[in-house]
Structure formats: C-alpha cells, structure tokens
Amino acid sequence: MNSLCTDEQKKHLLKLTTLVSDKRLSGQEAWSAFSKPEKSKKFKGKRPETERFTFAEAEVRTYKDLRQIVQNKLFERCGGSCSYCRRAVGHYGWAWHIEHVLPKSKYPAKTFLLSNLTVGCVHCNMWKGSRVDKQLRTQKLPIINPVELNFQYSKHLNFVQIGTESLSFAKYLPRTAEGRETYELLSFKELERAHAINGVDGSAAALHERITRGMQIGLGTEEGRQLAALLQRLKTSIYNLP
Length: 242
Prior knowledge:
Blueprint: H1 7-21, H2 27-35, E1 40-43, E2 51-54, H3 57-77, E3 96-100, E4 117-121, H4 122-131, H5 153-156, E5 157-163, E6 168-174, H6 177-185, H7 188-200, H8 202-215, H9 222-239
Antiparallel strand pairs: 1-2, 3-4, 5-6
Helix pairs in contact: 1-2, 7-8, 8-9
InterPro entries: HNH, HNH_nuc
Protein name: HNH endonuclease
Keywords: Endonuclease, Hydrolase, Nuclease
C-alpha cells in the first residue's frame, strides 16, 4: 500500500505493520484497526488480558482515507467484478470485500501488501475463508490465484451468461485443476442455480440480495462471522431446494 501513500500516511501505516512484525497485533487485528479505525481499539485474541491500542486523530484519518483509496484501486483493477466468480460487485452488483488472497491470519506480513489484495464478493469470501484459508499450509493455493504473475482467468475457467427477457442462465466451465477446485470449493454450482432462479423469480432475487447484504455486516467480529455463516447456510438451503 505504500505506493498509494503520502509520506505522512506511510508513517501511519508503518505503525500497524510494525505492530504486526513485533507480534503485538495479529494480521486480523491490524486489519481491523485499519478498516474500522478508532482512536482506541481493544483486542483480546490469545492474550491473557485485553490490551488497548491508541491511535492519533491523524492516524485514524489516514486509515479511513487510505482504505477508500485501496478500494477504488482494486475496484478499477478488477473491472468491478469478483476476482473468483467474475460477477459484478458494487453499487449495481453484489456486496464485496477487500480480499486477502493469502490469508492475513496465516501470513500477517502480507496484510498490507497491495499485491496480496483483490476484490472478493461475499459469497466467494465466505467459502474461501472456511474451505481454503483454514486448510492452507503453504502459499500455493488449491484454487485460482488472481494476483499471481501473468494470471489469466480464461485459462482456468470460462464464465458464460445467457439471458432473454424472461430467463437468465450462468455456467462455469473449469479448464484446469485450479479451476475445478475453485468451482467445487467456492460452490459455483450454487451460483449457477441462484442465477437461474433469480432470473425467473423476482421475490427470490430480492431475498437473495437481502441475505447477501446481511452477510457482510459485522464480519470483523467472531459473532458477526457466525451470523454470516448462518446466513450462508440459509442461502445454500434455499437454492438447493428441489
């Protein structure tokens, strides 16, 4: 992210990266301090006691401004689409997150590297977190890596959409082992089914949107992640009905 910072902002970002390198903050905690900045943040984690960290007003302002700059940069780089499923995100698409390709929980030194960040929709972010990130033992992902050098999505997956005035279909066609793992681990079959149902049932599309929007609320806390997981299971059960 340093390439996007002014000299003053670099100093403020250095505070977080130093806290991570000194192991005073985990990657997840540092990202929470960055993405939801406050003058005072408390973290428990694996500590015997809760520890409070303070941030100057200028640091809080830097984190707010820099987050928006990073969001805009990633959105432009990814063409307003999720890097994994290639569905549109943003104001006229699905909810999305700044996605850490290599998880910050296991690779905290990469938490603030722009080269490790991309756009991930709520659906892909949830499944990647539970099925890929938690099981990851090396820096080699079993699924596609959208930030690797010379990455080409079409080499691994073809995404086909067909629509008429009353029907709409989407299909993912894996072409490589990474593409097949992406299709399976990120539940692209659910996306295909949801796309078809939403195309013919406006009420289902509205429900899908409300659930997906709800999933992104509070993901920075354990309670929020549990709620998001519950909503994901609800969404999956709806679109797996016969």
